[in-house]
Amino acid sequence: MKTKQIGFIAILAVIATMAIIACKEDETPQKQPDTERTLSFGTDCKVTIKSDDKFTTDEWKTLCDKVVAAIEKGYNKTGLNSSQNNATFKTVFKYNIPVSLLKSATYDCEVKAFSHELSTVEWYIKISALDTIDLQPAIWAIGDGEAYHQP
Question: Where are the domains of the chain?
Answer without folding.
Answer: 30-150
